[in-house]
Each structure stands twice: as C-alpha cells, then as structure tokens.
Design a protein that fits this description.
The complex is a heterotrimer of chains A (about 190), B (about 260) and C (about 350). With about 190 residues, chain A is α/β, with parallel strands linked by helices. Chain A contains six helices and six strands; from the N terminus they run βαβββαββαααα. Chain C has two domains: about 230 residues, Rossmann fold, CATH 3.40.50.970; about 110 residues, 3-Layer(aba) Sandwich (Rossmann fold). The chains are: A alpha/beta (about 190), B alpha/beta (about 260), C alpha/beta (about 350).
Chain lengths: ~190, ~260, ~350
C-alpha cells in the first residue's frame, strides 16, 4: 500500500450477535496501525438484540471528508435480510461478499463483483460459529487488501482484552480460512 | 452569651450570629421568621456558618439568601435539592441545607426531593409547609387541605377535581434513604422548642454522614389564609396538624445514640 | 486498561468528549440517559471514580443541570451532556447559570427534531444554542467540532473559556460525530484541578472572608441591567478573543460553501471533488458559532461571487451568514432536516448550477 492513493468505503451488515461491529473495529484498528486515515461508524438505530445492525468503515490514505457512506466500495453481508436492506448501497463496480450460509438469493446486479462464502458453515467446522464475521473479513481482505492480515491479527490482540485471549487463535484461523476460500472461489470462477 | 466585668448586665437574648442584621420581608404573623431563627440558632450551636452553604428556593423564602449569614445559592423553582446535591457531592466537607416552601418542594420540585432522599444524599432540607402558594397570591399548593379555599380553589379544594394533598414525610418514609424525617410546628413555645430539636437532629444527621434529612415545619400564612395571626395559629393546630400528624417519622440509629 | 497518550488511537466522539473533560480537570458530571450520547455518561461512570470525581445519573435532565449549577457554585469544573430533547430541558438551568455568572460545559450531541424526532444526525438546535436557548438576555458560548480530535480539543478548551467568562459554554456535535470512531492523539499533559486558579466568588464556606451569594434575582431593574451589561461586555470580549474558524480551498474561490460539523465534513468532500473537476469552490467553516465569525464572513463575501450554506436544518445557520454578509453577495441555502445527511455528490449537484451562475 505504498504511496498509492487509497479511499475505500466498506459496509458490514448482519443482525445483532453476528459480530458485525467487531469485524468493523478489527478493520478500523488494523488501518489505524498501518498509519491510515480511518472512520468507523455504527448504524444508529434503537439498540435491539438480534435486530438489524451495520457499520461503515472508511480506510484512506488522505484526510477523510464525509464520514457518511452512501455507496460503498464493498459490502460484507452476513444474512439475507441485510442484503435485502442494503443491496443498493454499493458502487456499480463494487464488491459483494456474501455469507452464503444465510444468504439464499443472490442480488440482481451484473456490474459488481460477487464473492460467496459459506461463513457460518465454515465457522462451525472451525468449532465456533461466532468467527463467521472474521471469515468474511478474511475473504474480503483477500479480494481488497486494504490492510494486511498481520495488522488484523494485531488488532485482535488489542481488542480481545482480558479473559478473551484464548479466542485469538481460532480467530486467526478464521481470518486465514476466509482468505483461502476467496482464493478457491477465484480459482472456481464463481 | 457574654458578660461584661463589673456589671450585673447579661445578654439573655440576641440575634443569632448566623442571621444577617437586616430587616426581613415576611408578612406580619408569618412563621418564616421563627423558622429562620431556629435554623440560625442551630447553625450557631453547631458552629456551622463558616462551612455552610444554604440553598434558597423560589417562593416566599426566595430572599433567604439575604438573611442567613453564610454562603448562599439561590436555586431555580423546585431545584434546590439538586443544587444542594451538586454542592455537597463535590465538597462533602461543607454543610449544605435547603430552605423550601410547599409549592417549591412538593409541586414543581417533588422529583428532586424524592430522588435526593432515595439516594440518601447527605443534605438537610428545611421544608416550610403553609398549605398555600404565598408569594404568587395564595393559589392552591400540593399541601392545601381538602375543602380549603385558595385563589385557585375559590369553592374549597375538591379532591375529585384538584386531587388530594401530599403528605411529604409519609411519602418519603417509604424510602430507605432518609436518616431523619420529622414534622413539627411552631404554634406555641413548646412546639418551637420541639421544632428546634428536630432541626438540630436533622443537621446532626448530615454532620454524622447518615444521609438525607428533612424537617417539615407546619407554618401559618395569615395573609393568604385571610386570618389574624392568632387565629391562624389555632387554625393550624385544629386543621393542619390533624391532617399532617406532628411526629418523627424516621430517626436513624446513629441519631438515637445521642440520647 | 490505561489510556494511551501521544499516539494515534481510535476513539468515539462521545468518549473523546468525556476524556477531554477529565483531562481539563472536570470533576463533576451529572447526566441522564438519552441516545445518541450515552457513551458519555457511561465513560464518566467508569472513569470518574479513577480521579476521585463525582458522577451521578440524575433523575432528570432538569435535575442534572441543577446539580451542575450546585457543583459550579462550589467552584468545581462541572459538566452535563445530552441530546436535543434533553438540552431543551436544561435551558432553564443554563439561563440561571448565565445570570448567576457560573461556568460550566454542556455538550449537545444533536439528533433529529423537533419533538421526540429521531436519533439520526442533525443540526436543528443551532438557534437554541447560539441565540440564548432559555429565557432572558444571555448567550452561551458555542463551539462546533467536525472530527473526534476537534471535539476533544474544543471540549477541553471550553472549560478554560467557561471559567474565563464565567458563563456556560456549549459544544455541539451530532449523532454521527458522537458515535463514530476516528484516530485521535490525546495530549500527555492533563490539568490537575488543584492547579487551577482559585474562584474567590465560589460558595464553598465563608471561612475568613465575607459570605458569597450566587444569585440571579435582582428585583431592582437598575441592578439587573448592570449585571446584564456586564454579561454583554463579556460577550463583546469573547467576540474579540474567541472567534474560531477554518478555511479550505478559498484561494481563488468564486463560490464559498459555509458549513460546520458533519455538514462541513460532507461539504469538504464535495469541494475537493469540485476542485478536481476544475471548479473554483472553497469551504469556510465556523468553529465558534457564538461568537460568530461575522467579520471574516463579511470579508469572504467581498472576495467570492456567491455563498452556499449547507446545514442539517432548514435555514438556521444561513440567517447568521446573511447578517454577516449584509447583501455583499448572494447567499444560497442547502438545508436538510429530520436526520438526513447529504452525500458529497448531492452537495456537488448544488454547487454546479451556482458555479454556472457565477461565470455568467
């Protein structure tokens, strides 16, 4: 990411409990550590467990003006309802990363790049459903390497806090597995 | 008391040091003056003036900041307990009291009163209940008795239309926060002495860090009651004291040890 | 976890505001929960005990501002925060504090209004903030940040300014600025309240001095007039000393956008896109909203051919701009309401026809 001008707007969406906010904060902290300008913003809605939630992250090499993301460069979609709600919030040449475990219908969009990852199924294979968010993040970063996986892993250590250190290893695995799935998808041409 | 050598003269009665040597604005026969004096006497006895902050309220006692010889803050209507909490919490070493009427404390300021009591905030409230809005012209107060005539209950307070009176001490007694709650009156010398004892206990509760204390003083308003002062005192004894029992409601253990 | 200073960290606007207050020596916070500013009281609840300060979740907004009144009267740096509907409830207390010449800092993380409105970003409390808000002949000094770092800096400075002028100071943010995270560098130096200048007017026990009275009741009009003239003299002094603003791409600009806070963040993106497309457009950003940078805007109006005010309200900031411009150039308004934030592209769409006009 040397010298090149970067301005990438990401929207991550799912329902409460899927780790949407955490995935965004991992990305934001990784960008911060790499010296980037960054904005992380939550969706503002009445807070409800299980309700729809999304957050936006802007990673840039230059000062960030508008903190509000209208059309994102990339959408990370954790469930069908979020896709239905936010499928239009992406630029024409943008990227969809879809959690195909919970997204059945693909968006009708023939200009964007589509990447489907069965994040929930893979997370269960890894032994913890709750790392689905990090699998999605790993897949996204393989496609759009706006921060390095190492920076995300450092962010995991920063955010894990006391009592959660044991979860770092499985999250590292999830990040790597997500990247692997993205590479495989590319090879399949899906 | 002071005694000059070589004379037989001694001072038996004088203005308490905690009262400013100024003329008060209260109406003839009003008992605010007595209550001010009792507060000041207790402040003198406990040597509080140099570390006291008094909170004046809105109502007839709005000018209390001119009368007490200590630091004073004039609060917005009903907000005196919140202001007192602000002072006391940042300076627990100070002695903080409010002086409030029934409209201020029991109408617009009932929330601040209840919550200061519930939090056991270590402040003392002198609550003067004369069952009427005095300063604004004699309108109904939350403590106006059923049937009592005021300028906004010209046919007498009808509880069906105007609601029932609030018994503040009884209301606050339901809370765990208060360390001392008492209702007194000042209609005769014995009642005045009892009232002073209650105020002293309330102030001591704060000095001992026991929590919230409040003394409700049943008072007369000859002007708004449209009665001569003597008749007003009797009316209070016969009517108000019947509706609002004179007694101690809460006495924290730490205060009982005094005896 | 000890907070890291002197290096870039991520913080929410709301958290940065609370940390700024602690760093400014604020030792008393009173508040009542309301979205979208709840991270502020939560931050104080967690961190005020570490510095031996006072935190109370008050029974109401009304009680909270009056607790601030008491703490400020006792000479301690005190604060309350809220969002639009709650700030309305605090106006009584602010009026009393201004007339009683008491300093405090109040933050309004503005949301959509009027009424209960919604919890999206808005700037519709501009008039309330800069025109006095409550009853009477007073003003609050008002500052508006556009980033997490600036909200920290302004909140921190506001305590000094409040003490200097013995007047409430308000910091304006909005739902977006309050809740978003951005890089911020916390300075190493923090203020120890014990090092602050004494407040000889405080009601903190009349030991060895005449008693102090904190009061806003002056029955004789001549007395009240004197107090109000004294307040006015302070506002005049603030107009000389405390005006803050920033300009971007104003060199050679034929059209100037004027916006603050989130509206300015969106506007700068539009301005930079416009400049990239060869449009001579710039941004003037008031940071102090009262005192208002009227002189600077008047000078700007001499330089540009037109002004476009962008605000998240339907014509509030634009009134002060027009008063400053005094007809020197046309002043246009792009106002949005109800919690709607425009995109840079939408602002650019407003810029383009105006640019065409200036060329004509």
């Amino acid at each position: 990411m040397s010298g090149e001008r970067l301005h990438h707007e990401v929207l991550i969406a799912g329902f409460g409990g899927q780790g949407v906010v955490l995935a965004g904060q991992l990305l934001a902290n990784a960008a911060l550590a790499e010296g980037r300008e960054v904005v992380w913003a939550p969706s503002y809605g009445p807070e409800m467990r299980g309700g729809p939630v999304h957050c936006t992250i802007i990673v840039a090499s230059q000062r960030i003006g508008s903190p509000e993301v209208s059309l994102a460069d990339s959408l990370l979609i954790m469930d069908q309802a979020s896709l239905d709600r936010l499928a239009h919030r992406v630029k024409p040449e943008g990227l969809f990363v879809l959690n195909s475990s919970l997204v059945r219908a693909r968006p009708e969009n023939d200009t964007c790049e589509m990447l489907s990852i069965p994040a929930n199924d893979v997370a269960e294979e890894l032994g913890n459903l709750r790392v689905a968010n990090v699998i999605m993040l790993g897949a996204f970063l393989e496609k759009r390497p706006i921060v390095s996986p190492e920076s995300v892993e450092n962010a995991m250590r920063l955010l894990a806090g006391k009592g959660y250190e044991h979860l770092i290893a499985i999250n590292q695995q999830a990040l790597a597995r997500g990247a692997e799935l993205a590479r495989e998808a590319d090879a399949d041409g899906s | 008391m002071s005694m000059e050598e070589g004379t037989r003269t001694s001072v038996l009665f004088e203005r308490p040091r905690a009262l400013e040597p100024v003329r008060m604005h209260y109406c003839p026969g009003c008992t605010h003056g007595i209550v001010h004096r009792l507060v000041a006497e207790v402040m003198d006895e406990l040597d509080l003036a140099e570390r006291a902050v008094g909170i004046a309220s809105v109502g007839c006692a709005v000018f209390a900041y001119n009368y007490f010889a200590c630091d004073m803050v004039e609060a917005a209507h009903g907000r005196a307990p919140a202001v007192a909490v602000g002072v006391k919490r940042v300076r627990p070493d100070l002695f903080v009291f409010t002086y409030q009427g029934d409209g201020d404390l029991a109408a617009i300021g009932i929330a601040e009163t209840i919550h200061a009591a519930a939090r056991a905030d270590n402040i003392s409230i002198v609550f003067v209940n004369n069952a009427v809005f005095g300063m604004t012209g004699g309108q109904m107060a939350p403590t106006t008795l059923p049937g009592m005539k005021t300028s906004t209950t010209p046919y007498g307070r009808d509880p069906k239309a105007a609601g029932n009176p609030i018994r503040v001490c009884e209301l606050l007694s339901a809370l765990d926060g208060p360390a001392y709650l008492a209702r007194v009156s000042v209609t005769n010398p014995q009642r005045v002495r009892e009232a002073k004892r209650a105020i002293r206990k309330a102030f001591e509760a704060q000095l001992k860090g026991l929590g919230f204390s409040l003394v409700e003083v049943l008072s007369t308003c000859p002007t708004r009651w449209a009665m001569p002062p003597q008749k007003a005192l009797k009316w209070l004894d016969d009517n108000m004291a019947a509706y609002y029992p004179i007694k101690e409601f809460v006495v924290a253990e730490g205060l009982l040890e005094e005896k | 976890m000890a907070i890291r200073r002197g290096e870039r960290i991520l913080m929410r606007g709301n958290e940065a505001i609370a940390q700024a207050a602690l760093d400014a020596g604020c030792r008393a916070y009173f508040g009542y929960p309301i979205t979208p500013q709840n991270q502020i009281p939560e931050y104080f609840a967690a961190h005020m005990p570490e510095v031996g300060g006072v935190f109370i979740q008050a029974e109401s907004e009304v009680a909270a501002i009056n607790m601030v009144y008491g703490a400020a009267a006792a000479g301690v740096r005190a604060m309350t925060t809220s969002s639009s509907p709650g700030i309305s409830l605090k106006q009584e207390g602010l009026s009393y504090m201004a007339e009683s010449e008491l300093p405090c800092v109040v933050v309004n993380i503005m949301r959509g209004g009027s009424g209960l409105g919604n919890i999206a970003p808005a700037q519709a409390d501009y008039f309330q903030a800069v025109k006095g808000g409550g009853h009477g002949d007073y003003r609050t000094l008002v500052f508006a940040g556009w980033s997490v770092q600036e909200l920290y800096d302004l909140t921190r400075d506001s305590f000094d300014i409040a003490d200097r002028y013995r007047n409430p100071v308000m910091v304006l943010g909005d739902a977006l600025l309050g809740q978003m995270m951005e890089p911020i560098i916390l300075p190493q130096d923090v203020i120890d309240p014990d090092d602050l200048p004494p407040k000889p007017w405080a009601t903190n026990g009349a030991k060895g001095r005449p008693r102090n009275i904190i009061n806003s009741l002056y029955i004789d009009p001549a007395d009240l007039e004197q107090v109000n003239l004294r307040l006015q003299a302070r506002y005049d002094e603030a107009a000389r000393r405390e005006v803050r603003y920033a300009g971007e791409h104003l060199e050679g600009a034929r059209l100037a956008l004027i916006a603050y806070g989130t509206a300015a963040r969106v506007s700068i993106s539009a301005v930079e896109e416009g400049r990239a497309a060869g449009l001579p457009v710039g941004l003037f950003r008031p940071i102090s909203l009262y005192p208002f940078p009227s002189r600077e805007i008047a000078a700007l109006a001499e330089q540009v051919e037109a002004i476009l005010v962008v605000e998240l309200s339907l014509g509030q900031l634009v009134e002060d701009v027009r008063l400053a411009v005094e007809g020197r150039c046309p002043v246009h308004l792009y106002g949005l309401s109800g919690g709607i934030v425009p995109t840079p592209a939408e602002v650019l769409q407003k810029i383009e026809p105006l640019m065409a006009e200036t060329r004509a």
